[in-house]
Amino acid sequence: MGIGTLIIFIATILVAAVAAGVLISTSGMLQQKALTVGEQVRVGLVNGISIEQVFAAGDTVNKTANNFEILIRPAAGSNPIQMKTMIMSFFTETIATTAELEVPATDELSCTEDITVTTSWTALGCDLDDDLVNDYVQLVTGGTDNLSFNLSNTDTRINVSTGYRISAAMMTEMEDFLIEEEDGDVWGYVQSNQTSGAADQINITVKGHFVGRCSFSLVAPERKYCVSMTVGDGDTILEHGESALVYFKTKVALDESEEYEIKFFPAGGRSTFLQDRIPDVINKAKLFLWP
């Protein structure tokens, strides 16, 4: 074998070695990518929630249903679900909406004021929109009394109807009323009660956050849902062994026999949906809808 043949033989071996190295590196990368994609697919297929039960409040006079309570838990084999990023959708023939979690705050913003029927604005002792500019409230009378809020970073006044006529009826219990704009943005809630011994005056407590509270009176219809942990530590992460009751309501109540669909979309997980309908006869205040 001549020198030239030997050189060609060695060159061939070197080229083969380089090619083998490239193939090994590429196969390793493809294997890692396949494992990553496989894990993503597994997570997407496994991560999710299970809908256990659905209840609603029945109106036996108007024969309608609203105020849905949906019991959920993590699906079998699922990783913990962060409800802050979980979207809920609700569909009927006339409703198509998505809602996100009304996240409770850890510190409650609260102020109390005595408000008299007047044409002037009263400065609140708390800043609901958190822009370091005073917010104001005004008591306006009519068929019923309304509280009108002027928040510095909103375009319009926010009117809250108390449903009472202060000069004619005593409000004996504190009640919650949402401070909600027409587009559904909620800035907090107000509790009102007539000030004892003062005519045309109410005492209000304004709260800007929902600390540990989940109720139908405090959740924005169709735009938000809130959760009450039935089993768990009370945070927004739904873990194995925990369950939560989702509170959701529509702007217009559903009629007897009306079909609806509920879907949950956890971030990075699979969607879960339920199709059902309102009972043909609504004769109870508490309706057990599903299963």
Task: Provide key terms for this protein.
1 helix, 2 domains, about 15% helix, 20 strands, Immunoglobulin-like, about 290 residues, elongated, alpha+beta, single chain, 4-stranded antiparallel sheet, 10-stranded mixed sheet
Short description:
The protein is α+β, with helices and mostly antiparallel strands and 291 residues long. Helices cover 15% and strands 40% of the residues.
Q: How would you describe what is shown here?
A:
The chain has 2 domains: 132 residues, Immunoglobulin-like, CATH 2.60.40; 98 residues, no CATH class. Strand 4 and strand 5 form a beta hairpin. It has 291 residues and is of the alpha+beta class. The strands form 4 sheets. Strands 1, 2, 4, 5, 14, 16, 17, 18, 19 and 20 form a 10-stranded mixed beta sheet that branches. The termini are far apart. The longest helix is centred in the N-terminal third of the chain and has 44 residues.
Overall mean pLDDT:
81
Cα distance, first to last residue?
Answer: 85 Å
Low-confidence stretches: 39-44
| Helix count, DSSP H or I runs of 4 or more residues | 1
- Name of the top-level CATH class of the largest domain: Mainly Beta
CATH topology of the largest domain: Immunoglobulin-like
Write the H/E string, N to C: HEEEEEEEEEEEEEEEEEEEE
Q: Report the helical percentage.
A: 10-25%
Radius of gyration: 29 Å
The total tally of domains equals 2
Shape: elongated
Structural class, please? alpha+beta
The beta-strand count equals 20
Main beta sheet: strand number and arrangement? 10 strands, mixed
- How does CATH name the architecture of the largest domain? Sandwich
Beta-strand residue fraction: 35-45%
In CATH, the homologous superfamily of the largest domain goes by the name Immunoglobulins
